[in-house]
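User: Can you predict the 3D structure for this chain?
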Amino acid sequence: MEMFSHPKYFVSAGDQELMFNSFSEALETIDNALSQQKGKLSLSADDGLRPWWQRFVFGASNYIRMYLALEWDSNFSGLIFYDENSSEYRALSNGPNSEVAESIRNQISFGEPEPLEAKYCLASEVAFKAIREFMDSGAKPEWLNYEFVQ
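Assistant: Here is the predicted structure, written as structure tokens:
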């Protein structure tokens, strides 16, 4: 299903879990979240009804398609895009980020117990630009480099 045609969108912004019936409503919330000094953001969507046996076995009635996850603090961000198979594409920094403090890398570690590796620490302005381009096109930006994680 194309990104712009899902029946429901789910945005996690900070401590809020929000559901929207249109992409434009979700986009407004994402734009508001990106105006914050620090935060966590994810976008996913209802990807249709599961077959009856999956509903019975897994207990979930619908497929959920994850699109992106972003965490940012003090002008640094970690950014992950997901494909239709839920594989991760972690955005890589274009330059050396040895100056990113461990305390910041802990804040943008996507819930992992270890700090985010410096190679994944992007300047927040770069991450925000990538997200806005993604929101316009529905595809992860080709000008960024990624590490594929299954």
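The helical segments are 23-34, 52-58, 102-107, 124-137. The chain has one domain: 3-149.
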